[in-house]
Amino acid sequence: MVVLNWHEDFIVHLASLVRPKVYVELGLYHCALFNRIIPFAEQLIGVDISPEAGNYMQQSSKTRFFKGTTHEFGKEMEVNPLEINMLFIDADHSKEAVLKDFKDFFPFIAPHGLILLHDTHPGNEQMMQPEWCGTAYLAVEELLREMRSSYELMTIPVSPGLTICRKRQAQLSWQEKL
After folding, report:
1. Strand duo 22-26 + 162-167: pairing
2. What percentage of the chain reaches a pLDDT higher than 70?
3. Backbone phi, then psi, for 9, in 5-degree steps?
4. Where are the beta strands (DSSP E) in the chain?
C-alpha cells in the first residue's frame, strides 16, 4: 500500500528538530500539516486562495491565515518583510508556479532556512495529473540546472516526493556571515 501523505509526518518531525521561528505554508487545503506544526514554531502563516481553508486552521496567537494567491502574499512580504525559517510550497503543482514561488520567497528565507517542495517525485504517469503532482518535479530539474552556491537541494525519491532545499553560503550554520 502506498502512503501518499508520508511527507506530513516527516515535515512535522523536521519542524520538531529545527523549531522554526517563522513557518509559512503555501497551499493549505484542510490545514492537516499546518496545524501539526503549531507546537514547534513561534509564528505560522498559511496561504490559500480558498477562504474555506482558513476555517480548518487552529486559531492561536501564533497563527495567521492569508486568503489570496501566493503571488499576492509575496507582494505583501515585499512591503512587510519577514524572515522565514521553514517554507512549504504546495499550492499550484505546475512547474511554472513552483519556480515562481521558490524565486519569489527565496529572498525572505533565513540563512540555513529550509524550503520544502512537495510533489517532486511522482510514482507514475497517473500521478503527473494536475490534481496530483502535476509538473512540480520539472521545477526541481530546473532549479538544479540553475543551482548556485546559495542553496542545496535533495529529493526524497518516495512518491509523491519531497524536495528539501537549504539556503546557505557556508556548510556550517554557525560559520555563516551575519
Report:
1. unpaired
2. 97
3. -60, -40
4. 22-26, 43-48, 63-67, 84-89, 109-118, 151-156, 162-167
Q: Which residues of the chain have pLDDT under 50?
A: none
pTM of structure: 0.95
Sequence letter at residue 12: V
Which 3 state secondary structure label does DSSP give 52? helix
Strands 109-118, 162-167: pairing is antiparallel
| Model pLDDT, residue 61 | 97
Residue from 63, 37, 67, 70 nearest 52 by CA: 67
Q: How far is CA 153 from the centre of its chain?
A: 13
Residue 132's nearest CA partner among 90, 89, 91, 93 is 93
Q: What residues does 21 pair with on adjacent strands?
A: none
- CATH 3.40.50.150 for domain 19-49+71-148, yes or no, is yes
Kindly provide the b/e burial profile for residues 19-28, where b requires at least 16 CB atoms within 10 angstroms of the residue's own CB.
ebebbbbbbb
pLDDT at residue 143, rounded to an integer = 94
Taking the C-alpha atoms of residue 49 and residue 110, their distance in angstroms, rounded to an integer, is: 25
Cα 13 to Cα 17: distance, rounded to the nearest angstrom: 6
Q: How much is the pLDDT for 5? A: 87
Q: Report the candidate in 22, 23, 72, 79 with the shortest Cα–Cα distance to residue 49.
A: 72
